[in-house]
Write a structure and sequence with these properties.
Blueprint: E1 7-12, H1 16-26, E2 32-36, H2 42-47, H3 49-68, H4 82-107, E3 110-113, E4 116-120, E5 123-126, E6 129-138, E7 142-144, E8 170-174, H5 178-189, E9 193-197, H6 209-221, E10 225-227, E11 232-237, E12 243-247, E13 252-255, E14 257-260, E15 264-266, E16 299-301, H7 312-327, E17 341-343, E18 349-353, H8 356-363, E19 367-374, H9 378-382, E20 388-395, E21 401-407, H10 411-423, H11 428-433
Parallel strand pairs: 1-2, 1-6, 2-3, 6-16, 8-9, 8-14, 9-10
Antiparallel strand pairs: 4-5, 5-6, 7-15, 11-12, 12-13, 17-18, 18-21, 19-20, 20-21
Helix pairs in contact: 1-4, 1-7, 3-4, 3-5
Length: 452
Amino acid sequence: MTDEFDYDLFVIGAGSGGVRAARMAAAQGVRVAVAEERYLGGTCVNVGCVPKKLFVYAAEFAQAFRDAAGFGWTVNDTRFHWPTLRDNKTREIERLNGVYARLLDNAGVERIEGTATLAGPHTVRVGERTISARNILIATGGWPFIPDVPGRELAITSNEVFYLERFPSRVLIVGGGYISVEFAGIFNGLGAKTHLSYRGELFLKGFDRDLRDNLARQMAEQGVDLLFDSHVEGITKNPDGSLAVSFADGHQLTVDTVLYATGRYPNTRGLGLEHTAVEIAANGAIRVDDRFRTAEPSIYALGDVIDRVQLTPVAIGEAMVLVDNLFNGADRVMDYTDIPTAVFSQPPIGTVGLSEEQAREALGDKVRIYRTEFRPMKQTLAGGSDKVLMKLVVDDASDRVIGCHMVGEGAGEIIQGLGVALRAGATKADFDRTVGVHPTAAEEFVTMRSPV
């Protein structure tokens, strides 16, 4: 590389994808800088996966305390203290921010605090500073969206929910994706009267229908008020500070907090894209090819800002592909097939591969379905009504397992391993030949013999 430019790679956004790209590029000996206007680690570390999972752990204690009695434990006077959870979480996030800073510093990446905007194909401005770069990577992630309903300014998003001054005793969550479902479990588990409103007939669109039905039933049994085919028309503030929420069907709810989890949109506003040939889609996502190149040859984009698969490990994988192509002479593309994922609802969902509906659409009646639903062993003494659902989707012609799905404790951990099996092309016969670990719920995945 010559010194024609200040940097060989300038990264806008220090989230999971941006940090990985910056570090791996610097390891190749090229000059790299990364600009971040908020916090190192992006959505996942600060207002996403990490704090949310910590809150999920906190919420799960409520059921653990209830289950304990059946195993001989007496647990008295349990109380939840919101400031302790909130502040301990914040300290952990601050620790992780420091870890990200050290990773970048140790890799030789220059960290620049401030808002970066494009001024041309090779030019970035940060404050009063103008910087030139041979290649520019946009990794600015997504931003939560609240639809234009009257009183929208009274609602909060997942950006604010982790820092609430007071824990609400009544909460309405609006949305039908994994964020809304996860927060419904969190608030319910922590003791709030929880309502979930979704405009569709059932949440988690795109997931296997059996999983959606099963989770909805169990959440309702746990006390979450599920309002499907429900449309919020407006929010007003009562004299006592509570919020009155009006719905299209005429009914009203009074709650303390309204959390909108109606999606995250690509964070491209104010980037200065008009000074380049970069093209964006109707929802603001940056258009890229299969090697993350934009219409501007020197500018690349990856992660949530391109709106393909909004998952942290995917952004990291995309970053590895990009760096290999840019600095190692590779010609790789990202493989988005069979990506395992989890919804940390209560109970959680784990899934990899095709749903039954997707498989039937692709293969017609050449599909075998194996399904089991049972009461987990833990509940035999705990006395709860929890059920585990497991499901395999098999291509009848090849006997390959093309979908694995689960609702139940440990679903995310179990599906990670099954993701390896699917990537390796495992057949149903391979599953059948595998000896189960007894007694576990996971062994059911290798003992289902009769298709339904």
